[in-house]
Give the backbone structure.
Amino acid sequence: MSNEVLSISDVKVGQELPARTIHISRADLVQYTGASLDRNRIHWDEHFARSVGLPDVIAHGMFTMGSAINVVSDWVGDAGRVVEYSTRFTKPVVVPYETGADVEVTAVVKAVDVQTGRATVELTAMCGTDKVLGRALAVVILG
Amino acid sequence: MAVNASFTGRTYPAIAPYAVGREKIREFAEAVGATDVVHTDQAQARARGYRDVIAPPTFAVLIAQQCDQQLIVDPEAGIDFSRVVHAEQRFVHHRPITAGDEIVGVLTVDSVREVGGHAMVTTSSQLSTTEGEPVCTATSTLVIRGGE
């Protein structure tokens, strides 16, 4: 049953996970708005976003957080193995109508605990030169 | 300060049970690009030892935000929602949220503090099944921007 879950013997501190670029369009934000029930207009209405002083529509922080963790879930082989996940929202992801936005997600193993079978992974999410997630850490239970 | 500091330590009554549905899990997983079949395929989820399909790691926000809402709309708290910014989020899962769960959440205001003219409020929502099994602790920090 756990043959597809990454084994702790295959994980080392400093190991890099396969990186991923998440392209975010306005349609993605509308879809997340519906699924998450976070209907704040700053995430889909640029007239409203500008009226409250933002440069344009911005992505939900929880959309970025929720998308970035796929890098870890897919690496470990089972999303249910992600037992802790935390981040700071350090900069907004601005999503222009024409181009959308690209968030580059990289991740590296920071700690491995053979006693508990757990590994701690640090994620980095960049939008251009902006670090959009700060101190993003996930703890996974390995096979 | 933009938030009533005496709210530190306050606990709200449990929210009405949230019924976790397979289709809501599928919808949320699609929205965050989570392609693990454990979110959509019951047979695969069962083969991995789960009772049914399980939710992606940040799905708990759907329930935690209902808990937070109690504080945000509390007139005594004095929070102007148009000035609220999500600053930090943390999830500790005791076990995956699973389709068929009926989940209640209890909100506690952990701290209210002032930083550079803004108010920072940290809350935690203890999510558990209606049978009392702990499922997830969701901690969030909101910044309420001060007036100009």
Remarks:
- The CA atoms of residues 88 and 107 of chain B lie 16 Å apart.
- Chain B touches chain A through 35 residues (CB under 8 Å).
- Chain B has one domain: 5-21+56-144.
- The mean pLDDT of chain B is 95.
